[in-house]
User: What shape does this take?
Amino acid sequence: MGKIKEYSNGEVTIVWESEKCIHSAFCTKGLPEVFQPKDRPWIKVDAAATDKLIHQVKQCPSGALSFFMNEEGDKSSESMETKVEVMENGPLLVYGTLNVTHKDGTLEKKNKTTAFCRCGLSDNKPYCDGTHVKEKFKG
Assistant: This one.
């Protein structure tokens, strides 16, 4: 199981699940003053306003980044309409609430964005782990 870290500015908490990260760099390109992967901690939540943090976290294609509002005290993700997007030379992104049944029969509920492997090379199947980038997958 990958690391799960939480970073809070008091108003919002950003949750990072390392195992889901496909290193698309949307976060670092969108808010470089906040997302600094070479530093520890790598997320500087005080470097931007809460609305900008939320907007950028919502751009994460893998769902590795998520957030919850601290005042609500509710870490459950709200359901949203299901949408599927094929990323050029990358994963299949599914937005919404999903119930995934793994090959061993275990069930997992996924919320918000889930990146499924299309190249067949991921070590974290059925999820994308970013291997498509180094293997120069075209599709």
Q: What stands out?
A: The beta strands are 4-8, 12-17, 65-69, 83-86, 92-95, 98-101, 107-110, 113-116. The first strand starts at residue 4 and ends at 8.
